[in-house]
Design brief:
The complex is a heterodimer of chains A (about 150) and B (about 210). Chain A is an alpha+beta fold. Chain A has 4 helices and 6 strands; from the N terminus they run αβαβαβαβββ. Chain A has one domain. Chain A starts with a helix and ends with a strand. The chains are: A alpha+beta (about 150), B alpha/beta (about 210).
Chain lengths: ~150, ~210
């Protein structure tokens, strides 16, 4: 009889431990988002306005967007302006988190020149990656010169 | 042709430059100390402040300016139109304001005004002759908003000075700000305590030659 009680208690503890282990492995209560990769070819022929619209359409549907290349400074500026307009008009939308990372090691003059020519021909920096996520999901994008860290909301 | 135009522009500026009012914009992320710095300059040279300061982000929600601010430094005088702008951000959530004990209704109004302020800030970029980017030296300088603002100023050929504010705080890392923007002059200051403003004025006068 005593033995049975001991066994039951052991089972109970092991379930608790399992729950603890499981909660460490999961990332909390994040639900309803996906990650989309957008190659530059998808937006290459679009006007700036249409590019921004496409990006905001994707992000407002709870997607984290990974864009090949980067936007022009004036496009980034327009993206911020349009995001603000959207916050005013779309319920539950509180903005975006945005970060771009590109190669920093253009020390060599030849590499600099080669990348400039490539950028001029293609219209974008293919060595760059832009991450844009809805602020409701992405709490913060921590950026250092060489890496991007995504912190998600729980 | 461009060289000839620039030559005449320089001659004109040298002849009449001292009488011209230079539009000096204060840009940067929220709570970096743009209004604190603009206030300090305005108070030093006009006796009046430009706007109110608060710990709550997005305290400045309208572009505010002060005209004919004559700054005198080492015997030289220059007249500026000081333009203090709302902090630029990519997100605004009214719930953020609740943390500062702002009531829900007021927080929602504040958030709405802040979005409009950012749009206004961006629109004013085109009108600036010179821009001071005010960054919080205790925060990560690699924020995309900072890079976007600088990128747009460079594209418009508007001279830029980067100010790393709050250097009086222990967490401040001036070297990190300098490393993030190696192509620009970075001046570390404390707008709150008026620390290192001499170097700031020196940089402003030197930058004004590029206008």
């Amino acid at each position: 009889m005593v033995n049975k009680k001991v066994v039951k208690r052991k089972k109970f503890i092991s379930k608790k431990k399992l729950k603890k282990k499981a909660s460490k492995k999961t990332i909390g209560k994040i639900h309803g988002f996906s990650i989309q990769f957008l190659p530059y070819s998808e937006i290459k022929n679009l006007e700036s306005e249409a590019r921004i619209k496409k990006i905001l359409d994707i992000v407002s549907e709870n997607n984290i967007l990974i864009l090949q290349g980067k936007l022009k400074p004036e496009e980034e500026q327009k993206l911020i302006s349009d995001t603000m307009t959207m916050i005013r008009h779309v319920n539950g939308f509180s903005g975006i988190e945005l970060a771009t990372i590109s190669h920093q090691s253009e020390v060599n003059l030849w590499v600099k020149l080669r990348n400039s020519i490539a950028r001029f021909i293609s219209g974008s920096d293919f060595g760059a990656v832009t991450i844009i996520g809805p602020a409701t999901i992405v709490k913060e994008i921590k950026k250092d010169p060489s890496k991007i860290e995504l912190l998600l909301n729980r | 042709m461009v060289k000839v135009f620039n030559f005449f522009k320089k001659v004109f500026n040298n002849l009449f430059g001292n009488n011209r009012e230079i539009k000096l914009g204060f840009y940067g992320p929220p709570n970096a100390g743009k209004t604190s710095l603009a206030n300090r300059i305005c108070k030093d040279f006009t006796g009046e402040e430009i706007g109110s300061v608060s710990k709550i982000p997005h305290e400045t929600r309208n572009v505010q300016f002060k005209e004919k601010v004559e700054i005198e430094y080492k015997g030289k005088k220059m007249t500026f139109k000081m333009v203090d702008t709302p902090g630029i951000a990519t997100k605004i959530d009214y719930e953020e304001f609740l943390k500062y004990k702002v009531k829900k209704k007021e927080a929602k109004i504040r958030a709405k005004e802040a979005t409009q302020g950012i749009i206004e800030s961006i629109k004013w970029l085109d009108d600036m002759d010179m821009v001071v980017i005010v960054l919080d030296a205790t925060e990560n300088p690699y924020n995309q908003v900072n890079i976007t603002i600088i990128g747009n100023l460079v594209a418009r050929k508007i001279p830029v000075l980067i100010v790393a504010n709050k250097i009086d705080l222990k967490k401040a890392d001036l070297k990190k700000v300098e490393a993030a923007f190696p192509e620009y002059e970075v001046v570390g200051i404390s707008a709150k305590y008026g620390k290192n403003l001499e170097e700031f004025y020196e940089a402003i006068f030197s930058l004004s030659k590029k206008v």
